[in-house]
Amino acid sequence: MAIKALVFDLDGTLVDSAGDIAEAVNLTLEELALPRVSEATVRSWIGEGVRKLMTTALAHAGSALELDAAMPVFMRHYTACLLRSPRLYDGVGEALSALQARGLPMAICTNKPAALVPPLLQHLGIAGFFAHIIGGDSLPQRKPHAEPLLHVAELLQQPVANCLMVGDSGTDLGAANNARMPIVLVRYGYSRDLDLDAADAVAVIDDMRELLTIVA
């Protein structure tokens, strides 16, 4: 493949942060006098941005509370829990180092609020790999809309077809398909109800180091 740049999703692709996100959701629910939910339940909600996450959490709890009333509470807990226990998936650091050594520019395109991305990358020691960060609130649209990927391709100064998206969910797949950008999916992330083996992807990988044989 004539890949000249890579665009990575964050949560569920590079970083396992589900436990921290789940704790932020549960602290929010507790503060709102609503019942806690399991981490597995929250994991199934991750990927479409913080407002959709809290919309789903409130609906699950049967709450009639307005979303705009809940969001400041959630964002306070989300920020506090950001660096609680995130970890890089196996092989991520090695793969990013090898890709950088090949001179391939890399960017992050996530639905996580943009302000929370740099502290997380710094904490995990991978901030230096990424030339650009597009968050869920960086543009009027977020994934699965095409615009975030189209925008990041412009920032990377590459045609969309020469960029490779790496993600874990139907949100990432939808964005890549809408932007006509090739995508590799990881099997270990927060795929929710996506049938990975039926997805229109270049490959489905079990370890990020497998990228090194795809991007030659």
Would you mind describing this structure in some detail?
- With 216 residues, this protein is α/β, with parallel strands linked by helices.
- 40% of the residues lie in helices and 12% in strands.
- Helix 1 packs across helix 4 (67-81) and helix 3 crosses helix 4.
Strand content: 5-15%
Instruction: Give the helix level as a range of percent.
Output: 25-40%
Note the gap between the termini. 7 Å
Largest sheet data: 6 strands, parallel
Task: Please list the strands of the largest sheet in the order they lie side by side.
Answer: 5-4-1-6-7-8
Give the overall silhouette.
globular
Could you write a compact summary of the structure shown?
By secondary structure, this protein is of the alpha/beta class. 40% of the residues lie in helices and 12% in strands.
SSE blueprint and pairings:
Elements: E1 5-8, E2 15-16, H1 18-31, H2 39-43, H3 50-60, H4 67-81, E3 87-88, H5 92-101, E4 106-109, H6 117-124, E5 132-134, H7 147-155, E6 163-167, H8 170-179, E7 183-186, E8 203-205, H9 211-214
Parallel strand pairs: 1-4, 1-6, 4-5, 6-7, 7-8
Antiparallel strand pairs: 2-3
